[in-house]
């Protein structure tokens, strides 16, 4: 990994986002657009401005595509890569997302209902389809190699990481741009989560005794992955290594995790095996940590079984909310920053750890840690599980 970019409710760049996560600052705020719904909190991205959005063709982009483009542009800048100089055939794009351009869909539905089909914009489908974040990244940066759009619900970003790693390992590309992006803070989506009892109107509190759901968030995370030989040839400075990845499926329920954590545990153990390391070598865990009663309890039980040495555990969703399909990429980027700085960030919102959990959840303040390896978990509706193992360079 040679570059990363972040667009979140905490800020539109990696430094601002990392500062909020490191400080344990929650970004959830009352959202006027959600007035009259069962919940009123969201984690929205602030007003976004970046040179990549000033180019022709940007005016009609859905927010999800705008978030993705900005995050990728940041990652390329840090990696020191100029798209004008690379061989686009040797570059891949792999994106993860859960819903596509929902704002674009909402506008089109409103026009169809109020004024008729002739008033639906021709930009509707290019703005709505789930693959368009991937397509816009490829178009904007001249990528002509493999491009894939993945959707495994809230595991999508981590699924994208694994697919990108496989493309690199297979020699299909030298550079892979990975981006998880989501812009699902809409009245219908928030209502849907409320109907499932998954969201909170008091704030996200992962692993806290009083947790009652997550806050729906939007944003994007991007990472530049390169084959080691390619990075070395251009004297790039690696930020971290992706040394292991695995995925599994619960095949249990459409929205509830397996009560014994079977699929999640399978994915964690398989990712460690893929990395060729034992559980004791893991210095900290970036948990999926959604702040729901069921998910946190099951994940904590899995972590206590796999990691009896009790490495420190954190969840960024207390600070940033749940960015859904973007979460895996956002949290992988945060895990890279944690490894680089030698800390485990706090879990915002954690006041009193659930006494039923047997894991060491970091609360209140960041904790110094010299570990060389970290695990990042992502679990999604449909029983999708994806786990990444990251290491210092």
Quick recap:
The chain has helices at residues 14-23, 63-79, 102-115, 124-128, 132-141, 156-169, 187-195, 228-233, 262-275, 293-306, 317-320, 327-341, and strands at residues 3-7, 29-30, 41-42, 91-96, 147-150, 175-183, 218-226, 241-249, 284-286, 312-314, 343-344, 360-361, 367-368, 373-380, 384-391. The chain has 393 residues and is an alpha/beta fold. The protein has 2 domains: 3-233, Thiolase/Chalcone synthase (Peroxisomal Thiolase, Chain A, domain 1, 3-Layer(aba) Sandwich); 241-391, Peroxisomal Thiolase, Chain A, domain 1 (3-Layer(aba) Sandwich).
Would you give an account of this structure?
The mean pLDDT is 97. The termini are close together. It is globular, with a radius of gyration of 20 Å. With 393 residues, it is α/β, with parallel strands linked by helices. It contains twelve helices and 15 strands. Strands 8-15-14-9-10-12 form a six-stranded mixed β-sheet, sandwiched between helices. Strands 1-7-6-4-5 form a five-stranded mixed β-sheet, sandwiched between helices. Helix 6 crosses helix 12. The protein has two domains: 231 residues, Thiolase/Chalcone synthase (Peroxisomal Thiolase, Chain A, domain 1, 3-Layer(aba) Sandwich); 151 residues, Peroxisomal Thiolase, Chain A, domain 1, CATH 3.40.47. Helices cover 34% and strands 19% of the residues. GO terms for molecular function: 3-oxoacyl-[acyl-carrier-protein] synthase activity. Belongs to the thiolase-like superfamily. Beta-ketoacyl-ACP synthases family. InterPro entries: Beta-ketoacyl_synthase, Ketoacyl_synth_AS, Ketoacyl_synth_C, Ketoacyl_synth_N, PKS_Beta-ketoAc_synthase_dom, Thiolase-like. Keywords: Acyltransferase, Transferase. This is Beta-ketoacyl-[acyl-carrier-protein] synthase family protein.
């Amino acid at each position: 990994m040679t570059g990363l970019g972040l667009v979140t409710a905490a800020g539109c760049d990696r430094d601002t986002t990392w500062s909020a996560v490191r400080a344990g600052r929650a970004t959830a705020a009352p959202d006027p657009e959600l007035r009259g719904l069962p919940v009123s909190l969201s984690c929205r991205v602030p007003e976004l401005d970046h040179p990549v959005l000033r180019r022709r063709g940007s005016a009609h982009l859905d927010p999800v595509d705008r978030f993705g483009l900005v995050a990728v542009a940041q990652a390329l800048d840090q990696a020191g890569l100029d798209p004008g100089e690379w061989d686009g055939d040797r570059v891949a794009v792999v994106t993860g997302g859960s819903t596509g351009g929902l704002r674009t869909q909402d506008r089109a539905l409103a026009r169809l209902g109020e004024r008729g089909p002739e008033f639906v914009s021709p930009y509707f489908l290019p703005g709505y389809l789930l693959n368009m974040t991937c397509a816009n990244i490829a178009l904007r940066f001249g990528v002509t190699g493999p491009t894939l759009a993945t959707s495994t619900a809230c595991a999508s970003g981590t699924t994208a990481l694994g697919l990108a790693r496989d493309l690199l390992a297979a020699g299909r590309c030298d550079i892979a741009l990975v981006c998880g992006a989501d812009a699902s803070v809409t009245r219908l989506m928030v209502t849907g989560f409320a109907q499932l009892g998954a969201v909170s109107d008091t704030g996200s509190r992962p692993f806290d005794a009083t947790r009652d759901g997550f806050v729906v968030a939007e944003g994007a995370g991007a990472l530049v992955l390169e084959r080691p030989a390619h990075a070395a040839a251009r004297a790039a400075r690696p930020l971290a290594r992706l040394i292991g990845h695995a995925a599994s499926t619960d095949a249990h329920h459409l929205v509830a995790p397996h009560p014994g954590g079977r699929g999640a545990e399978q994915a964690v153990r398989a990712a460690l095996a893929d990395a060729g390391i034992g559980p004791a070598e893991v210095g900290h865990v970036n948990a999926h940590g959604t702040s729901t009663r069921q998910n946190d309890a099951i994940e904590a039980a899995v972590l206590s079984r796999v990691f009896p040495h009790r490495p420190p555990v954190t969840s960024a969703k207390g600070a940033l909310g749940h960015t859904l399909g973007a979460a895996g990429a956002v949290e992988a980027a945060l895990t890279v920053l944690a490894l680089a700085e030698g800390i485990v960030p706090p879990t915002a919102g954690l006041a009193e750890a659930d006494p039923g959990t047997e894991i060491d959840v970091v609360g209140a303040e960041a904790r110094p840690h010299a570990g060389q390896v970290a695990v990042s978990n992502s679990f999604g509706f449909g029983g999708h599980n994806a786990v990444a193992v990251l290491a210092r360079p």
